[in-house]
Amino acid sequence: MNLQIPDPEYFKALPSLLDSLARGIKGSVRSDEVSRTIFASDASAYQQMPIGVVTPEDKEDLVTIIRFCQDHKLPLIPRGAGTSLAGQVVGGGLVLDMRRFNRILDFSKEEKWVTVEPSVIRNSLNDWLAPHGLLFGPETSTANRAVIGGMIGNNSCGMHSIVWGSTRDHLLSCRAILADGSEALFKALTPDAFHAKRAQDTLEGSLYETLYQELKSDETRRELEHGYPKASIRRRNNGYALDLLARSNVFTEGGPDFNMCKLIAGSEGTLCVLTEAALNLVEPLPPVIGCVAMHFHDSIESLEATLVALKYKPTSCELIGAFHVQQAMENNKVNKFNTVARCSQWIIGAPESIIVVELADETREAVEQRAAALIAELKDKNMGYAWPLFFGEDVDKIWQLRRDLGGINSSKPGDVKPFEAIEDCAVDVDDQPAYVTELERILHREGVQFTHSAHAGDGELHTILFVNHKTREGIASVRSVLEQVAKLVKRFRGSLSGEHGDGRLRAEFLPELLGEQNYQLCKRIKSSFDASHIFNPNKIVDAPPMDTSLRYTPGEETPDLPTYFNWDKDMGLMRAVERCSGIGECKKVTSGLMCPSYMGTREEKDSTRARANILRAFLSRTDKANRYDHREIRDILDLCLSCKGCKSECPAGVDMARMKAEFLQHYFDLHGSGVRPWLVAHFTTLMGLATPFAPLYNLFMGNRILSVPVKLAAGFALDRSMPALCRLTFEKQYGRQMPVTAKAMRKVHLFCDEFTNVNDAHIGMATVQLLTRLGYEVVLLRNEESGRSSLSQGFVKRAKSFANSNVAAFADAVTAVAPMIAVEPSTIACFKDEYPDLVDAPLRDKAKDLARNSLMFEEFIAREMDSGHIRPDQFTDAARNVRVHVHCHQKSLSSSDLVVKVLSLPKNYHVSEIPSSCCGMAGAFGYEKEHHALSMTIAEQVLLPAVRAADAGTIIAASGTSCRHQIKDGAQREALHSAEILLQALRE
Asked: At what angle are helices 961-971 and 932-941 packed, to 10 degrees?
């Protein structure tokens, strides 16, 4: 049945209705347009505005919400991380944001189980379990943000399903709130216990009774066995798992105990709302892991080779397709340091398909022996053309690339984008070559672009279609392919959904896949749990056509917006925004740089994905004369720290920092900037004017009481110290103290950046002294400031004038042989990243050349080390410990590894990177009164505790001026620039 809203007047009453709900719970209810837009989509092709978003604080709230929805016939859509690909969490009802249910409740190391609430993140759970030598096995590619509740809803599997199976296999028991607000505990039941449950006069009791009456028939069970996928297929998620319940010992002699959890897993939140889950745990893989990367020129051959590989008992066997290889190579050309590029250096040639075979054993020798035997058999059978074996960090990079494939799919510019429609088909692994042969015939006949990735060792193929979502022809081709593939999968007795679920995408085809009788049984089971169909309606059963409620309306034009940056690489700003597919890599919280504001607040609105959703919605569909005239966009961008983490860590390469700057300039054109943004954008100019009065300025601004009026007027936090002003600028000190370097064999240009010039002149001089003593002629380049402050505040036109001037002034002097460096990473980042797309058209070629020859300080030193021009024997033998925090722009545009490498030049310096995100200061962000608390929250996650834990003899390193300031304010430690550390370590 479809949930029916009584009449149009009902919608008029919704605001007051939701207000009454808000008054009845401790949590929150949001029905504003921004909140609804943020939750209108997931990682699928679908979009539908919900009526609101409700966030319960506890179980009592949850019961109230469910009963409220039951009383008012409001659809309730449970949502976890929102990374589903079949539109499971997209709908017109009330989104149930379960993020407060994120506790680990109970644990038994001896019995190997853990009880968690549904919003515990899979990787966070395993981090907690690691000291106990246990883990939760199933691992989606989104495991760094996917929550246990969502994994149960989709019956997630992941890359190691060969050994660890699916989430369903590990769900021991669960507690759930049923449609009437009552609580049920689902667990394994003996036949006697099952029949006792049937007799209970409760909704829970009626569920057992209904299932018994439905499944006791031999004919029904035969129909289930005939209509459902082969029992040999582990990845099976079409419809409700009634075939598994039918095999229990209640109905089948010798079967396992009946456990309702088998049904709940894979039910996509359509039957009940989970509050707790008890999970079976496994031991980690053997300690030595190696990966054989089998390269093929033919995809069918690679699947045949998979059958060979399975004889060697791999722990994982994964396929990477040609498109992903091509996009990885493109990433290498654009930025060899971004995540995708760094993780794809191992690829040999231009393979059509790669099968990565993971072998785990107790010793490296054992892995090498098994790998050698596998490779020998492949060579003997003429399968593949390269079979390198990798260990250690290389294995981690291979698996990171595999996890990033979903985002890579969206990384190609233009309107032709991936459509996940047949990306989750699973067949018996022995049938896979024949299935793919026929699948590719269909795709070639339809003329649809496609690529494969796969859990090849477990029979699941992620075939991605590339179509224009904005045309009727593109969507029609998807439907045509899906209709044919559904028939093909049925013929192989496979599953159209292996682990991504039916949702609203594949559910339309369940009558054909399962058989009408089995489908009607699924409908009756849904109604027995949820007679009013309030729980995530129109998913699995009663689904609308798969080509409705799409993110893009076929035939709708993409706005061509005026811009200050050149967005030609993306075919315009809107298409740059549309790179975001919603996979939510920006919602990870345990590693990496992206996204520091989300890590600090854990609010969906503060993720890069939410910002992209709002930009897309308000820029494309508006009645404003100027599409940029939206306060909603400015507000959603407010907590973006412009760290550029998304540019490198988002597999699709979303550059939110640049989008923020672009938008703000247009918004300021309409409304003005206000005082504080203007002050920050002009900060270094103002500081330059104040330099003659540096002692007075430092006395005044360094005093907590005297500085109050200025901080209040500027909108800065009273608790934040202000940077001191140099009595003599770096430029002047250089002019007075510059050593003679006329005989130097090598030359380097040092950009006199605006921050070093007025605030950190001593570091500038340390850089000059270090390089001079190492034999370099240091030529100081001084023209205009870099424009970093202006860009961070949205003063793009001002930054553009600096870019034009600097490119014209420096481009001819700076070469590959005599590159340009800077002390402050964020300033050289302007040359490397923004300038080529910011300068006027006639200067673009010069800007690109200058960008190639503009290096972070550590990049330059590392390059010279590799050339043998700078050597460890030039530095002290003394032993020191160094903890380094790497600047955001170094992480995103360069490499943390290079920073560690450079600081390790003194051979007895033991350097370790602090695994922090952004420091939280982010230029002026941490000074601003409304952002100060979040700034400190971000810093307190990893950075400041690590600094405080370091003993007094440990050197704290940070190349960014903001980073050093944050460390000083938050941990009362002086952090040193890499140049200072190396100068101190240089032999006399």
From this structure: 90
pLDDT in tens, 607-632: 999 999 999 999 998 999 999 999 99
State the Cα–Cα distance between residues 683 and 679, nearest whole angstrom.
6
Tokens of 795: 């003063």
Band of residue 333 on the pLDDT scale cut at 50, 70, 90: low
3-class DSSP assignment, residue 984: helix
**CB distance 84 to 500 below 8 Å:** yes
pTM: 0.94
Taking 70 as the threshold, does the pLDDT of residue 589 lie above it? yes
Rounded to whole angstroms, how far apart are CA atoms 482 and 512? 12
Query: Does the pLDDT of residue 6 top 60, yes or no?
Result: no
Residue found under tokens 């590693």: 591
pLDDT at 323 (0 to 100)? 86
Q: Would you tell me how many other CB atoms lie within 10 Å of the CB of residue 868?
A: 7
Q: Do 862 and 923 touch, CB atoms closer than 8 A? A: no
At 620 the pLDDT is 94
With beta carbons less than 8 A apart as the criterion, state whether 61 and 44 touch: no
How many whole angstroms separate alpha carbon 609 and alpha carbon 391? 34
Name the 3-class secondary structure at 293: strand
Q: Output the six-digit token pair for 320.
A: 């990477």
Burial class (CB in 10 A: 0-12, 13-18, 19+), 183: middle
- The pLDDT assigned to 325 comes to 84
Residue 749, CA distances (Å) to 767, 769, 819, 870, 894 in order: 12, 14, 6, 17, 19
- What's the Cα-to-Cα distance from 207 to each of 186, 305, 529, rounded to whole Å? 11, 46, 7
Of the pLDDT bands very low, low, confident and very high (cuts 50, 70, 90), residue 4 is very low
Q: Give the model's pLDDT for residue 10.
A: 62
Torsion of CA 979, 985, 986, 987, to 10 degrees: 170
CA proximity to 538, closest of 506, 513, 515, 497: 506
| Extended beta strands in 420-486, E state | 425-426, 449-455, 460-468
Assign residue 319 a region (left: φ > 0; alpha: ψ between -120 and 50; beta: otherwise): beta
Instruction: Output the six-digit token pair for 475.
Output: 């969507």
pLDDT tens digits for 124-182?
Answer: 999 999 999 999 999 998 999 999 999 999 999 999 999 999 999 999 999 999 999 99
Mean pLDDT of the chain: 94
Strand-strand pairing, 389-391 and 449-455? unpaired
Query: Which DSSP string do the residues of 198-262 spell out, in sequence order?
Result: HT-SSHHHHHHHHHHHHHS-HHHHHHHHHHSPPTT-S---SS--HHHHHTSTTTSTT-PPEETHH
What's the token pair of residue 871? 């050597």
Q: Is the pLDDT score of 260 beyond 80?
A: yes
Instruction: Name the DSSP class of 468.
Output: E
Range name among 644-653, 657-666, 823-832 with the lowest pLDDT average: 644-653
The beta strand positions in 397-526, using DSSP E, are 416-419, 425-426, 449-455, 460-468
**Diameter over CA atoms, the chain:** 96
3-state secondary structure 320-359: EEHHHHHHHHHHHHHCCCCHHHHCCCCCCCCCCEEEEEEE
CB 726 within 8 A of CB 694: yes
In 3D space, the residue among 49, 122, 114, 52 whose CA is nearest the CA of residue 83 turns out to be: 122
Helix H or strand E encompassing 64 = helix 59-72
Q: H helices of 96-160, where?
A: 122-129, 148-154
Query: Which residue's structure tokens are 């109604």?
Result: 527
